[in-house]
Amino acid sequence: MTILQAVNLDKHFGGVAAVTDLSFSVTEGEIYSVIGPNGAGKTTLFNMLCGYYVPSGGSITFAGKDLAGMETHQIAAQGISRTFQNLQVFYNMTVLENVMVGCHMRTRTGLIKAALRLPSVIREERQVREWSLEALTLCGLEHLADREAGSLPYGELKRLEIARALASDPKFLAMDEPAAGLNDTETVEMRQLIQRLKERGITILLVEHNMGLVMQISDRVLVLGFGCLLAEGTPQEVQNNPAVIKAYLGEDV
Ligand SMILES: Nc1ncnc2c1ncn2[C@@H]1O[C@H](COP(=O)(O)OP(=O)(O)OP(=O)(O)O)[C@@H](O)[C@H]1O
């Protein structure tokens, strides 16, 4: 079943066409990767999916709902969560607190109720801790819950970012270069984590430069070139596609 569908998507910045007439669909439960050389339009596409950019044309629907005109928090409320290429971690807070911040989509407590410390607020806080610890466990970080986030090495910070994105209990997770800056061991851990997320039924859209990772874990791969769809298919299909080889190596095959 299709969970996300983009139809004739366009994005222009003045005279620059960053994404042109792009159509694709993501099937529920799959790992769908978007690759392409520098400047191909990956980040622009990612930002449109998450509501950071308004498309110049075309439509995006998620679970049958048109995302047009929705603010980022409204898109998040549909069940779409994202991670950032540049870490958005609160370094002075603990690991657990960082994830608890991500739970706000699932809670109902307002400022006044919280200030009054009503029993419902205390119950909800306990629930938030539980959800957060669950997300940390999934990301292999539960033993670091009380550590200050700023003391974590980069690979663990990247996984913390994912734990926070999971705290909102998303159906769909858009990941912006999760392996960027990771060493080989950390990349393997990241791959295993992404696979665990898929096993939990989360649909994943992955924008990633690490070809090894993309080819190992993706169900399907979309290749962009100059903002247009160059190819789409299984990792094996796109790797053998002459247009893709040409886009990456800059020569005819
Ligand atoms: N805010 C912007 N204003 C003007 N032009 C932009 C803007 N964002 C992107 N572009 C242009 O749109 C095109 C696509 O850029 P985009 O960043 O989406 O590519 P990318 O595939 O993510 O590249 P990279 O792999 O280097 O991150 C490029 O020509 C870029 O210069």
UniProtKB/TrEMBL annotation:
<dbReference type="GO" id="GO:0016887">
    <property type="term" value="F:ATP hydrolysis activity"/>
</dbReference>
<keyword id="KW-0547">Nucleotide-binding</keyword>
<dbReference type="InterPro" id="IPR003593">
    <property type="entry name" value="AAA+_ATPase"/>
</dbReference>
<dbReference type="GO" id="GO:0042941">
    <property type="term" value="P:D-alanine transmembrane transport"/>
</dbReference>
<dbReference type="GO" id="GO:0005886">
    <property type="term" value="C:plasma membrane"/>
</dbReference>
<keyword id="KW-0813">Transport</keyword>
<dbReference type="Pfam" id="PF12399">
    <property type="entry name" value="BCA_ABC_TP_C"/>
</dbReference>
<dbReference type="InterPro" id="IPR027417">
    <property type="entry name" value="P-loop_NTPase"/>
</dbReference>
<dbReference type="GO" id="GO:0005304">
    <property type="term" value="F:L-valine transmembrane transporter activity"/>
</dbReference>
<dbReference type="GO" id="GO:1903805">
    <property type="term" value="P:L-valine import across plasma membrane"/>
</dbReference>
<dbReference type="Pfam" id="PF00005">
    <property type="entry name" value="ABC_tran"/>
</dbReference>
<dbReference type="GO" id="GO:1903806">
    <property type="term" value="P:L-isoleucine import across plasma membrane"/>
</dbReference>
<feature type="domain" description="ABC transporter">
    <location>
        <begin position="4"/>
        <end position="251"/>
    </location>
</feature>
<dbReference type="GO" id="GO:0015188">
    <property type="term" value="F:L-isoleucine transmembrane transporter activity"/>
</dbReference>
<dbReference type="GO" id="GO:0015808">
    <property type="term" value="P:L-alanine transport"/>
</dbReference>
<keyword id="KW-0067">ATP-binding</keyword>
<dbReference type="GO" id="GO:0005524">
    <property type="term" value="F:ATP binding"/>
</dbReference>
<dbReference type="InterPro" id="IPR003439">
    <property type="entry name" value="ABC_transporter-like_ATP-bd"/>
</dbReference>
<protein>
    <submittedName>
        <fullName>ABC transporter ATP-binding protein</fullName>
    </submittedName>
</protein>
<dbReference type="InterPro" id="IPR051120">
    <property type="entry name" value="ABC_AA/LPS_Transport"/>
</dbReference>
<dbReference type="GO" id="GO:0015192">
    <property type="term" value="F:L-phenylalanine transmembrane transporter activity"/>
</dbReference>
<dbReference type="InterPro" id="IPR032823">
    <property type="entry name" value="BCA_ABC_TP_C"/>
</dbReference>
